[in-house]
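Handoff note, outgoing to incoming analyst
You'll be picking up this chain. Sequence as last confirmed:
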Amino acid sequence: MEVLMSTKAPGGEQRAGERPASGERPDGRSGPPEGSRPADSRRRGALLRRLLATGDWVAIVAALCLATAATSTTDVGTLFWGVLFVPAWILVLKLHGLYDNDHRRIRHSTFDELPALVSASALGTIAIDGLLALSPVGPLSPQSAILVGIGAFVACFAMRATLRLLWHRMAATAAGLVIGPATAVDVVARRISLHPETRLRLVGYLSSPSDKDRRAALPRLGSIEEISRVAREYDVERVVVTEQQMSEADAEHLIEECKAAGLGLTLLPRHFGLLGPGIELNRLAELPVLDFRFSDPPRSTLAMKRTMDIVVSALLLTLLSPLLLATALLIVLDSGLPVFFRQRRMGKECAPFTMLKFRTMVADAEQRLGELVDLEKLEEPSFKILDDPRVTRAGRLLRRTSADELPQLFNVLRGDMSLVGPRPEEEAVVALYDERQRVRLAVKPGLTGPMQVYGRGDLTFEERLAMERDYLDNLSVAGDLAILLRTPRAIVRGEGAY
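Most recent structure output, in case you need it:
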């Protein structure tokens, strides 16, 4: 693979002072040297798995202690036997694959594990209770069992999130390499920049000689045949391959090279633009097949989503009422009345509704919009104005913290909006949509959504649309919860908030 080839003396011995060939060790044997990056990567992966298992053990023991302290039906004897049976719970977590995804996937976070953690917590509680029934102390009471299950779920989630945060703070960001033409490289680089949870720092890309004159945002480090040299030189841990220019034989050879070098490998399919998120990978014997899902979300999912909207919005309006009053007072002191900004927006299936926001602009902002934006000349049906002169002093603070959106909790409670969904757009902007873009109107608009947690105003409309398609095709209550939990972090970071 490497251009520099070693010259061997008769008998197969390498001459002194000459470099070994690609993939060849200094002792003449093939494969990576001992103590090299593949071994280090495997050790790090094993260490993280042990840390997660230890954290789960601590979380489950804490849940058992909570049940013992909070209920009169669970005594110290039950706690003792419960702690002895904790390995059965760890086995349930292992069977759910909760220790095997950090090193396999290019993108993985604790939020992705929410559905599996719910299932594992329920089955773990049943397993512990069943084993306790065979012990001298007998099974848990229903109250204790519920407390243990809920406590273990919350504690495991918190412990895993904390451990991963500390791990990522201490461990260096992995170096990544993209293989493919410059146009595809730019797509990959942009997506990785929008998803910091990939923990991947792209050092450059490799492409075929015919593509060497084109330039991407990343530096070109050589041709595909030089992957061994580049991977060693830049300490690459993961390779992202776009197969636009590769034959099946070339792709197979590249996969074997990455496997031998211990590199993580992610493949971007040739027709990725046609492969929407609503697909599932299955197998027919040795044949991998993609099944497309075209059905609408089940009515039970929509009912659960609406129930969550009502409960959470009512609770937040109650808890945040002092903040709402303080914000209203700030607006009055800064720029006078009115406090609220009302605007006609398009909801589900183009149903119009009046959206509420705290006013962040001068009173005649809508009349002055034509001075800043010509809607008829927009290249795409969306716009953001940097350093908008219509924004007030208080408005800048409210926009930076997204506090101006809080009155939309009334829209959620009323049923015009949902907690999670595509952001609502103005009627004039929706009029510019084509049929493909109208897909985002298939559900109620949201107070937050995929756009808010991945880039916000820094996204192009096509990037927004791609994320919203992903959300629509995989709509679930667990997905909504993950976005809601990611939203505070996005607000604190403030990126893309205009």
